[in-house]
Specification:
Shape of chain B: globular
Distance between the termini of chain A: 18 Å
Strand content of chain A: under 5%
Strand order of the largest sheet of chain A: 1-4
CATH class of the largest domain in chain B: Alpha Beta
Largest interface: A-B, 65 and 68 residues
Order of helices and strands of chain A: EHHHHHHEEHHHHHHHEH
Largest sheet of chain B: 6 strands, parallel
Distance between the termini of chain B: 73 Å
CATH topology of the largest domain in chain B: Rossmann fold
Radius of gyration of chain B: 25 Å
Number of strands of chain B: 15
Oligomer: heterodimer
Chain lengths: 359, 403
């Protein structure tokens, strides 16, 4: 007898849900054992995880603020993934957007009405993200250059570029010699609604727009066809390179906008770490959400909760950061890993039946 | 058919495992009660069913008579350097005041370049854990902390190594340069190649000041020696720190000093059979074959003083800047690898430096790298001039990235 992995033809919704629930429960159990072994009370740990993610208005606010950039950038990255284009350059595109937004905010008069300033910054950041994203897309379309490596490497180019801006070109002369870029002026700060900067409204609008783009427009249809099969797209008379370029422009633009939202929503200063790794987290979120915009909204929010919850867990119980982060990782691993069992099943195989199973 | 069977099997396994593990948890929990008590959470008579209630109890107890102190660390409490130095200071302060009066809520790995992470951690400390006093132990937290200090006027904020203050935000630091100067004397005697390396974190005045003080110490006993500086551009990254140290060793440096959060530089020196001077914490046991000495911080008395001040209602903005005299700064005991003449020189100079402070270290005549006079004879750099120091002194090889 052997055990063989077989792809499932279809799976009942209830069964898929069951597998996911079991996976999450199991990953929490493993996390509990880990906590127990380290001498912490797992119940309390999970209690504080939950409490500091959702326990009060202020906590929910922190959770949402953490989730906003994750949701926006995941939407951008997901458009690329819909085409089968592996855009792991979200971080660099975010930085490019933030750089242009910073430049605009520092060079337009501070007396400008907030709405005009913010719109200019948003437009600039869309353009910035688009420009940096289109370079690898062009090389892919023209010469077949591997976009995964190209977009990945551009992240580092952008990071060191911003480092240079921070320590040299844009160094704030008023900072007593400390290498930092001056904060954006007051009219470049996003207003708040319900105590949270309006990035959350931008995120929701984008979820709707991206859904409509993918489901209701011609280019959205083309994007999905290219993602399903390049040959089919060609056979249907689509200009595949054109579709990829347009799709990537949108993908990069949204990632760039994330930079502007982070800049004028939470950090106010540009630095090379303004992205905080969200360009990479976005890849996980996009896949967990199966590239669905509404899914991204939900998964992004849960991600924010997990991040914010881990802060509270660490504080309340004095758990070392390394352990708190391992637990975050475990929970993620559980949720991601279970997709394997949703898509495949393990079959016990007897020699005589082998042929039947394979068919 | 088979489909369903396997599904059921998985589910059953899951449930069984669930029960088994919940059982385990119970026993683990009762076992670990002593350990948690020893740590931070004191009044928990944990029992799975009453956890929520316990938490509420702990909260109210904290709200009434205990001072809850929130602390932000840029790395971990066990980094063998900067953060560990602070963590030990806090622990000592709590020990001396009494764990029944103060409780620490510590958050590690808060990147000081990520304003959002900083803000979320501070807000959680204040709103979840009722912290009345926040210590932020890295430069980059400054602006976020200042912004938050206006949102929470009843909370006191203490920021290490910056320059901003507000109604309820103080900053504090110390004259580590006194110990840096002394460690420079050690390096000046120890070097044979007359090439000393310095692994620097970020090009900010704090780091530049330390490197200058070290170089002045070196050149006071060995005018032939030079100090080569390389910036790793990070506070905490063992990999990058090691790389930077190796680059300096490749250039022929035989004594390394550093301004980083981990002892990686020292390990690189030991691996190369060279010598090294640490920072923050003694590394005598980590790198016994390379370790000469280190400028050390002891934050405990300052932290104790500030915690008491908040509890007594006497907290004020002090912009504290103590040195060896105040016990905030010290030079670690010199190891057997240090030449006798260096030991004698340090011993002789120590009381004078402790007395005169940084005014001794940065006394004129001082020249910068390009030979321009930055401080005339008979004068010393003012505190403000030291705070803004943005040039290397004569004897330093290397450049500050700037416009």
């Amino acid at each position: 007898m052997r055990i063989r992995i077989v792809q499932r033809d279809h799976i009942a919704g209830g069964k898929a849900a069951l597998i996911r629930v079991i996976a999450i429960v199991l990953s929490f159990l493993v996390a509990a054992i880990l906590l127990g072994v380290m001498g912490y009370n797992p119940w309390q740990a999970f209690g504080s995880l939950f409490k500091s993610a959702f326990g009060s208005m202020s906590n929910i606010r922190s959770t949402i603020i953490t989730a906003i950039p994750l949701i926006i950038i995941s939407l951008g990255v997901a458009i690329a993934f819909h085409m089968g284009y592996v855009n792991v350059g979200g971080e660099g595109q975010l930085l490019a957007g933030a750089v242009v937004a910073t430049f605009i905010s520092h060079n337009l008069p501070t007396s400008l009405p907030k709405i005009i300033m913010l719109l200019a910054m948003a437009a600039g950041s869309l353009l910035g993200g688009m420009l940096i994203a289109v370079i690898p897309a062009y090389f892919k379309a023209k010469f077949g250059v591997n976009e995964t490596l190209f977009t990945l490497m551009l992240n580092y180019v952008m990071q060191y570029y911003v480092l240079m801006l921070r320590t040299q070109t844009w160094k704030d002369p008023k900072a007593m010699g400390f290498p930092k870029i001056a904060a954006v002026p007051n009219n470049a700060i996003l207003p708040k609604v319900f105590g949270i900067h309006i990035g959350w409204i931008i995120a929701i609008i984008l979820v709707v727009l991206v859904s409509m783009l993918l489901r209701r427009t011609k280019i959205g249809y083309e994007i999905r066809v290219v993602g399903a099969s390049v040959n089919t797209a060609r056979y249907a008379g689509m200009d595949v390179n054109r579709v990829i370029l347009i799709g990537i422009c949108m993908s990069g633009a949204i990632a760039g906008l994330t930079g502007m939202v982070k800049l004028s929503g939470t950090t106010y200063n540009l630095s090379e770490s303004i992205g905080g790794g969200s360009g990479f987290t976005a890849v996980i979120i996009a896949w967990l959400a199966k590239l669905s915009p509404v899914g991204i909204l939900i998964v992004g929010f849960l991600f924010g909760a997990l991040t914010q919850g881990a802060v509270g867990m660490e504080l309340a119980l004095g758990i070392p950061a390394a352990l708190a982060e391992s637990i975050q990782g475990l929970i993620l691993f559980g949720t991601l890993g279970c997709e394997f069992f949703v898509n495949y099943r393990l079959v016990r195989e007897y020699p005589s039946k082998a042929t039947k199973e394979a068919a | 058919m088979k489909f369903r069977k396997i599904g059921a099997l998985v589910a059953a396994l899951g449930i069984v495992a669930g029960f088994a593990l919940t059982g385990c948890e119970g026993s683990v929990k009762s076992g670990d009660e002593d350990t948690t008590t020893a740590a931070a959470e004191t009044e928990i008579d944990a029992d799975a069913e009453t956890t929520a209630q316990d938490e509420a109890d702990a909260d109210t107890a904290a709200a009434t008579d205990k001072l809850n102190v929130g602390i932000l660390y840029i790395s971990t409490k066990t980094d063998g350097g900067w953060s560990q130095g602070h963590a030990e200071g806090f622990a000592k302060a709590v020990e001396s005041i009494g764990a029944d009066k103060v409780q620490l809520f510590e958050k590690e790995n808060v990147p000081d370049t990520d304003a959002q992470a900083t803000e979320n951690a501070v807000r959680t400390m204040i709103e979840e854990q009722n912290c009345g006093l926040i210590f932020a132990t890295s430069f980059g937290y400054m602006e976020t902390l200042e912004r938050l200090s206006h949102d929470y006027p009843d909370v006191k904020f203490e920021h290490c190594s910056g320059f901003m203050t507000s109604e309820n935000m103080d900053n504090y630091f110390g004259q580590i340069e006194q110990a840096r100067y002394l460690s420079g004397i050690v390096a000046g005697y120890k070097t044979e190649s007359n090439k000393i390396g310095y692994v620097a974190a970020q090009p900010i005045p704090e780091v530049i000041r330390g490197c200058n003080a070290f170089t002045l110490g070196v050149r006071s006993v060995n005018p032939e020696a030079t100090v080569s500086v390389k910036f790793s551009m990070t506070w905490f990254d063992p990999g990058k720190e090691t790389e930077t140290a190796k680059a300096l060793l490749d250039e022929g440096c035989d004594v390394l000093a550093m301004h980083q959060d981990t002892p990686s530089t020292l390990k690189a020196a030991e691996d190369a059979g060279k010598f090294a001077i640490g920072y923050d914490l003694s590394a005598a046991e980590v790198v016994p074959d390379a370790y000469l000495t280190a400028p050390l911080w002891d934050w405990s008395s300052y932290y104790e003083h500030k915690m008491n001040a908040v509890m007594n209602g006497t907290w004020t903005i002090e912009e504290s800047w103590g040195g060896m005299k105040e016990g905030l700064v010290a030079l670690d005991e010199l190891t057997d690898l240090v030449p006798e003449e260096a030991k004698a020189a340090v011993e002789e100079l120590e009381p004078q430096i402790a007395e005169e402070g940084n005014a001794f270290v940065f006394a004129g005549p001082l020249k910068d790298q390009d030979g321009n006079e930055v401080c005339p004879a008979g004068k010393s750099l003012s505190r403000e001039e030291q705070m803004e120091m943005n040039y290397f002194v004569e004897g330093v090889l290397g450049q500050i990235p700037s416009n």
